[in-house]
Amino acid sequence: MMLKEQRLDVILKEVNSKGAASLKELAKLTQASISSIREDVAELDKQKLLKRVHGGAYSLNNNSSANDVEYESRSNIELDAKIKLATKANEFVQDNLLIFIDSGTTTHQLAKLINNKNVTIVTNSINVATELKSHSNVTTILIGGLLKSNTFNVVGSLALDNLKNFNFDIGFIGANGYSNNLGFTTPEINESLFKKEAILKCKKSYILLDKTKINSEFKYTFATNNKNITLITNYKKKDLNLENIIEV
């Protein structure tokens, strides 16, 4: 069994290496209990060495933000909040719509909720497409292109060409961060270009973002304040410079 100081060192290195980690991952890595890891993460957060969030931790290391965080590391972080955002988003899913669903852990939760709706859904996410296969009323179209193995989604020039064939009624978009200064951002250029094109192809877009991502900034902006974009978040909307916000 590791001593506490050893655990703290391992936790910090793991979070900085991957960009984020769940409590479950860290407990398995250190062979410690979830409660012990929770206390360790709280201590590192107090020392301003990482950012504690519900279910895990994010890195404060600028180098780690240069790359997308692995899907598994994000999936259980702020899970309750993601389900609430997805539940609100699901209210806008109506029969006979052509819908785009972006990749991401929150949009994946939305895919789990869509059932008994006669809709056609286009997605660039392997996880979303896999989730939708059990929904008999949903017609699912998976965009082709370059597969990102760490986030299980498709981007690149072929994906952009595929996307241009559709005129969506609504779209549900993920993001890595939002700030009043830079707007909605992501750390990877191909991801940014794809999201930007997806929003252009939607009559109405909903960006799903939990409060841990507010005031986070990454290299590439894909959207700013726009009358056709609505942010669904659990952050206080009075502090955000956006025209359309739904606070849950």
Automatic annotation (TrEMBL):
One of its GO terms (molecular function) is DNA-binding transcription factor activity. Coiled coil: none annotated. Keywords: Transcription, Transcription regulation. PROSITE patterns: HTH_DEOR_2 (PS51000). InterPro entries: Carb_Metab_HTH_regulators, DeoR-like_C, DeoR_HTH, NagB/RpiA_transferase-like, WH_DNA-bd_sf. Residues 4-59 form the HTH deoR-type domain. It holds the Pfam family HTH_DeoR. This is HTH deoR-type domain-containing protein. It comes from Mycoplasmopsis fermentans (strain ATCC 19989 / NBRC 14854 / NCTC 10117 / PG18).
